[in-house]
């Protein structure tokens, strides 16, 4: 887990003993299929996690759980759909850092959707990212990539899954700390931006570990560094960006489950307890080996979101990132 997330979580009392209240919830919920909205295209870190959770919940609750990919609008399309759904626990949202980042990317403007539109259920996991480049890019280290950026100002491009994502902020923070200018090229999701990098259409990305690892292992992409302060367990020999000349660099994804605001607390607590039980199962753990699984309580997640919004605003201010 990164220093960024440790700092937030250290300020929160994590209680894992919370159980669903009210026998009526267990008896009467769910009464129909549950929709898990993912505001990205299929194949990325959010989608992978949602499908693992969905499979567990479907079996545990004996009700179909449908993963609904609604990409676009920097996650606003899917998030807005979830926010306006009936507050009965049958429509849930799996979101990431975007929810706290978007307001900071457009200061002075009222966001279309924000944390205020949702009842937090649980922070499910955090996930490291990896700076990767295609084989054709003439850089084998962070130092060489920075030198290439300085030699070719405004020529190096980086792909992301949209404004406000950790991939976008990872590139913006990298450019500001390295003193180089990068051109941001946003896509709708991980599948699209990964295809662009694999095809050499963009020079780099700061992709999530599950998205980047298969292509690193085949040699199609070169891994230059991890985006976390600590080295990552799946590639322990890979240096971090922080130890490669940019001390203090630290970007990761977090993944949370939300319900529309107004959803009964008994349903929120019931879902939290079931998700917390699910991440301890072998089936879920085997599908999410790269994720640091957490599943904290709704109250702890709400506190985490407040701290994350503050820290994300500082990262955006430092990097100069915008939604334009």
Key phrases:
single chain, 324 residues, alpha/beta, D-Maltodextrin-Binding Protein, domain 2, 10-stranded mixed beta sheet, 10 strands
Please tell me about this protein's structure.
The protein has two domains: 192 residues, D-Maltodextrin-Binding Protein, domain 2 (3-Layer(aba) Sandwich), CATH 3.40.190.150; 117 residues, 3-Layer(aba) Sandwich (D-Maltodextrin-Binding Protein, domain 2). The protein has twelve helices and ten strands.
Judging by the overall fold, what is the CATH architecture of the largest domain? Answer: 3-Layer(aba) Sandwich
How big is the Rg?
19 Å
As a percent range, the share of strand residues is 15-25%
Instruction: Give unreliable regions as ranges.
Output: 10-23
Compose a concise summary of this entry.
The protein has helices at 3-10, 23-28, 45-61, 76-83, 98-105, 142-151, 166-178, 190-198, 209-217, 265-278, 282-287, 298-319; strands spanning 34-38, 65-69, 91-95, 118-134, 157-160, 183-186, 204-208, 221-226, 252-260, 292-293. It has 324 residues and is of the alpha/beta class.
Tell me the layout of helices and strands.
Elements: H1 3-10, H2 23-28, E1 34-38, H3 45-61, E2 65-69, H4 76-83, E3 91-95, H5 98-105, E4 118-134, H6 142-151, E5 157-160, H7 166-178, E6 183-186, H8 190-198, E7 204-208, H9 209-217, E8 221-226, E9 252-260, H10 265-278, H11 282-287, E10 292-293, H12 298-319
Parallel strand pairs: 1-2, 1-3, 5-6, 5-7
Antiparallel strand pairs: 3-9, 4-7, 4-8, 4-9, 4-10
């Amino acid at each position: 887990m990164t220093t960024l997330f440790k700092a937030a979580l250290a300020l929160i009392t994590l209680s894992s003993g919370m159980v669903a209240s009210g026998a009526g919830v267990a008896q009467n919920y769910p009464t129909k299929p549950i929709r898990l909205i993912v505001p990205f295209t299929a194949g990325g870190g959010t989608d992978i996690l949602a499908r693992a959770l969905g499979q567990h919940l479907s079996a545990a609750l004996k009700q179909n759980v449908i993963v609904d990919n609604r990409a676009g609008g920097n996650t606003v399309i899917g998030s807005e759909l979830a926010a306006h759904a009936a507050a009965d626990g049958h429509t849930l949202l799996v979101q990431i850092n975007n929810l706290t980042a978007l307001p900071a990317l457009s200061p002075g403007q009222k966001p279309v959707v924000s944390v205020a539109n949702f009842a937090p259920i649980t922070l499910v996991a955090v996930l490291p990212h990896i700076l990767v480049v295609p084989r054709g890019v003439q850089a084998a280290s962070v130092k060489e990539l920075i030198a290439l950026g300085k030699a070719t100002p405004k020529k190096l491009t980086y792909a992301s899954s949209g404004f406000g994502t950790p991939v976008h902020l990872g590139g913006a923070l990298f450019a500001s700390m390295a003193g180089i200018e990068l051109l941001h090229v946003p896509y709708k999701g991980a599948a699209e931006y990964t295809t662009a990098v694999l095809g050499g259409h963009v020079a780099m990305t700061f992709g999530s570990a599950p998205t980047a690892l298969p292509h690193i292992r085949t040699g199609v992409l070169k891994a230059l560094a991890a985006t976390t302060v600590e080295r990552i367990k799946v590639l322990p020999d890979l240096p971090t960006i922080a130890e490669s000349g940019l001390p203090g660099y630290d970007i990761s994804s977090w993944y949370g489950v939300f319900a529309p605001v107004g959803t009964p607390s008994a349903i929120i607590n019931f879902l939290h307890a079931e998700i917390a039980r699910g991440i301890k199962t072998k089936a879920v753990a085997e599908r999410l080996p790269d994720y640091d699984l957490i599943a904290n309580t709704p109250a702890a997640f709400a506190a985490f979101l407040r701290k994350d919004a503050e820290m994300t605003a500082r990262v955006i201010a430092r990097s100069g990132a915008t939604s334009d």
